[in-house]
Design goal:
The chain is of the alpha+beta class. Among the domains are: 202-365; 375-559, Jelly Rolls. The protein is built from 14 helices and 21 strands. The chain has a seven-stranded antiparallel β-sheet with strand order 9-10-21-12-17-18-19, with no helix packed on it. It has a six-stranded antiparallel β-sheet with strand order 11-20-13-14-15-16.
Length: 561
Amino acid sequence: MASSIGGLSEDQFLCPICLDVFNQPVSTPCGHNFCMPCISSYWSEPQACHCPICKQFYPRRPDLKVNTFVSELASHFKSLQLTDAGVSSTAQQRAGDGSAVQCDICTDTKEEAVRSCAECLTSYCGVHLEPHYRVSGLKRHTLLEPVAGLEDRVCKEHSMLLTSFCRDDNVVLCDACASSGHVQHKVVPVQQAYVTMKHRLVSTEYKVQEEIQERINKVQSVKESLRQSKAEMGGVMANSVQELTELVFEIQKNQAELVRLTEERQKANEEEADRFIGDMEREATTLQKTAAELRELSRTEDCLIFLQRYSEVMLLPHTMDLSMFNLNRQLEVQRIHRSVSKSVSQLRALLNQMSSDITKYSTGACASTGGSLKYVQQYQVNVVLDPHTAHPQLILSDDWKEVRFSPDFEQWFQQVQNQNVSMFTENLGVLGRKGFASCKFYFEVFVGSKTEFCLGVAAASIPRKRAIARTSSSGLWAIWFMKDKFEAYDSPGVPVYRRKAKRIGVYVNYEEGQVSFFDVKAAALIHSFYGCDFTKKLHPYLNPCDNEYGSNWDPMIIVPV
C-alpha cells in the first residue's frame, strides 16, 4: 500500500527538524508545522526564537498548541505505515497456514474481510464495508488492511491507533495520549522502540542463562562438599572415639557428648545444605521458566504485543546471593581434630579444658542455622532509645543512641515522684522507640570495657514496675555479662560464653522465633534462643547495670554496622 492520504506525499507528514512523522504537531504563526518536542528544543536558546524554515523572528516565544487536524492526518499516515509494515507478514502468515481474517458481521457463511475499521474495531467483507463509503459519519473512519485482534492495536480511551511508545512510562500510546499526559516524556514510534527493546531482551536473556548456570554449578559444588564433609566428619568421629576409648572410664561423659554434638553438627549441615539445594533448584526452575518466557517474547514479531508484555516479562524473580552460603567444612573438621588430639595427649591435666572446648563447640553448632554474622548484618535497622521508658538513674545522649548509669539518687527520687507508666523503676532498663514484628532485624551495641550489662529484646508488655523474672516466660530474651562471662537471662549461673566482647550484634528472626547474639570482633556466636513464642512487637532492650562488679561507667552505644 502506498503511504499517502488524499494525494498528500510522505514528505508532507515529516517534521522539517527531525525528518520523522509528526509527533504532537504544532503550527507556528507563519504557518509551518513541527513536532512540539523538536520546536521546543530548537527554541531553547533565546536568540533562536524564529521559524527554522522561513526565519520569521518572534520577539516573544509563541504559545503553541497541538494542531488536531494535522495530528489526525499524521495519525492516519502512521497507521498506514504500521499497516504497510505488518500487512506483508500477516499476508504471508495467512498464506502459510491457510487462515484469513473473516468478516465480523457475516452470520451464515463467513466471508473474508477486505478492510478493518480502527474506530469500529471490526473487520468487514466487501458487502458490509459499503456503508463506510456512503454514510458521512463513517467516511471519516480509518480503514486498514484486514487485521486480527484489532482491539489490541487501538487506544481504549481515544479509539485511535497505538503508534507511539513512551520510554519513561513503558507504555504504548496513541497520538491523543502522547499529546496529553506525555508531553515532556521521551516518546518514539513503536517500531523504533521495538528494535531497542529487542536488543535489551537479548541481553537480559543472556544474563538469565548465566545465572541459571551459576546456580547449577553451585548446587553441584554444595553436593560435593556435603559428600566430602560427611566422609571426613565420619572419619574424625571414628578417630576421636578410638582415642577416647583408651581412657573410657575417665572420659565416658565427654565422649558421649562429643558424639552427640558431632552428629548434631552433621545433621545441621545436611539440613542447611538440603534447604539451600532446594532453594537453588527452585530458583533454577523459576529462572528457567523466566528464560522460556523471555524466549517466547523474543520470538514475538508483533511489536505492540511485544511492548505490552515487555514490562511484565522483564520483571526478573528475586534470587539469593550465592556468596552467602558456605559449609566451611575443612576448618570445622580441623578444629575438632585439634581439640580432641590435644585433650587425649594431656588428658589427665586438661580434662576441664577439654570440657570447655566441647562446650564452645556445642554453642557454635547453632551458628549455621542462625546464619553467619555477615548474613545477619544485612538486616540492620536504625535503633533509637525511648527516653520515656528509661529508668530514672539512666542518662541518655541527645541523639538517643547512648545510655549510661548515674548514681544521682536525688534525680532518681524526683523522677520517681513524676514517673510515667512506661518507665522502668526496678530494672535499670530502657527500650528502643520502635517495635518490630513479623520480620528479621539486626542491630549492634558497643559496650567497651563494661564489667556488667544486659542486652537483648523485650516484648512491649514487659513489666516496668517490678523486677523482671529470670525465666523463659518473662518476655525478655537477653544475655547478661558479669565480669568475664555471659549468661542467658533465663538461665542464671549457666555460662554460655567465657570471653569478653566489646561489640555485640543482636539478630532476631521473628517468624522463626529466633534471637541470636554475636561477638562482632571475633565473628563468633555468643548464644541463641530458639523456638520463642513471639506474640507482640519486640523492642531492643539495654541495661547498663550499676557498679557491683567494679567501675562500670562506660555507656552502651548503639552503633552502625
